[in-house]
């Protein structure tokens, strides 16, 4: 098991919006893992999120107006004082040992940017495997990256403060900066946990919203590839549906003939 002392120089950076129902439990979870430095960026929530945060022993930045996930996260990264940052959404929960191993891997491997790696198959009509697109644009090969959680070390944190960052999807902007400055990028397995049905549902919603942001970036950055991917997904799903229908009808036909002969 990885020693929790590795977290002493890691700041959790978490943008949030209207998370009053769950934010206290999320902070409790992060503290139970061993994080001492937690920075939350409240994107001008209209529920009781900020009121709850003022009662917690965490650092809080509150936006005067809603500016969105990208700029909220960037604002938080600008404010990090430690050597490393762990970026996560407000509902992300992971197996403790897996999370500690993930961060330890990032620190010992001197990764400027480390994404979690998906064990899940890319599924659904609108899901896109981003790895081929990263190869096309940046010439890098990282398998099945999940752009919803990241470890960032000081080499990238320092570059962020001197770079001009566009209003595109923030994680891919970080990839751009890494490649431009020849920094180290990678992925590592990170196991999710779902302690309750509520958390499970919220985690799925959080991942879904992250995928929407990713797809919007991809749609603008890789319009041709994006359309090809969607078209191929649709064709594949239609073929699977037709094949499934024919198989069911064949089974019905065989059963019907068997009953008539009996």
Instruction: Give the overall average pLDDT.
Output: 81
- CATH topology of the largest domain, what is it called? Spore Coat Polysaccharide Biosynthesis Protein SpsA, Chain A
**Unreliable residue stretches:** 121-127, 195-200
Total beta strands: 7
| Total number of distinct structural domains | 2
Largest sheet: 7 strands, mixed
| Oligomerization | single chain
> Helix/strand-derived class?
alpha/beta
- Per DSSP, what share of the residues sits in E-state strands of 2 or more residues? 15-25%
Give the H and E element order: EHEHEHEHEHEHHEHH
The gist of it:
It is built from nine helices and seven strands; from the N terminus they run βαβαβαβαβαβααβαα.
Describe this structure in words.
- This protein is an alpha/beta fold.
- The protein folds into two domains: 4-221, Spore Coat Polysaccharide Biosynthesis Protein SpsA, Chain A (Alpha-Beta Complex); 224-262.
- 51% of the residues lie in helices and 16% in strands.
- It has nine helices and seven strands.
- The chain has helices at residues 23-33, 49-55, 68-78, 96-108, 130-138, 154-160, 170-180, 197-221, 223-261, and strands at residues 10-16, 37-42, 59-62, 84-88, 113-117, 145-153, 185-189.
- The protein has a seven-stranded mixed beta sheet, sandwiched between helices.
- The radius of gyration is 22 Å and the shape is globular.
- Mean pLDDT is 81; it is low at 121-127 and 195-200.
């Amino acid at each position: 098991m990885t020693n929790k002392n590795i977290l002493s120089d890691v700041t959790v950076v978490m943008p949030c919006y209207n998370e009053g129902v769950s934010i206290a439990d999320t902070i409790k979870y992060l503290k139970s893992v061993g994080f001492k430095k937690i920075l939350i960026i409240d994107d001008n929530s209209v529920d009781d999120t900020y009121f709850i945060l003022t009662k917690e022993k965490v650092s809080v930045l509150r936006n005067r107006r809603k500016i969105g996930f990208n700029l909220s996260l960037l604002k938080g990264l600008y404010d990090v004082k430690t050597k490393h940052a762990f970026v996560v959404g407000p509902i992300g929960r992971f197996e403790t040992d897996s999370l500690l191993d993930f961060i330890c891997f990032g620190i010992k491997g001197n990764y400027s940017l480390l994404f979690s790696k998906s064990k899940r198959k890319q599924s659904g009509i609108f899901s896109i495997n981003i790895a081929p697109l990263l190869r096309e644009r940046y010439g890098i090969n990282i398998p099945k990256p999940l752009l919803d959680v990241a470890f960032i070390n000081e080499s990238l944190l320092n570059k962020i403060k001197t770079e001009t960052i566009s209003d595109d999807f923030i994680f891919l902007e970080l990839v751009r900066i890494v490649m431009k400055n020849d920094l180290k990028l990678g992925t590592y397995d990170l196991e999710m946990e779902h302690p309750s049905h509520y958390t499970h549902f919220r985690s799925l919603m959080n991942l879904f919203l992250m995928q929407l942001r990713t797809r919007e970036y991809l749609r603008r950055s890789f319009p041709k590839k994006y359309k090809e991917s969607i078209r191929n997904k649709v064709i594949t799903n239609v073929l699977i549906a037709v094949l499934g229908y024919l198989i069911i009808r064949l089974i019905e036909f065989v059963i019907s003939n068997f009953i008539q002969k009996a």
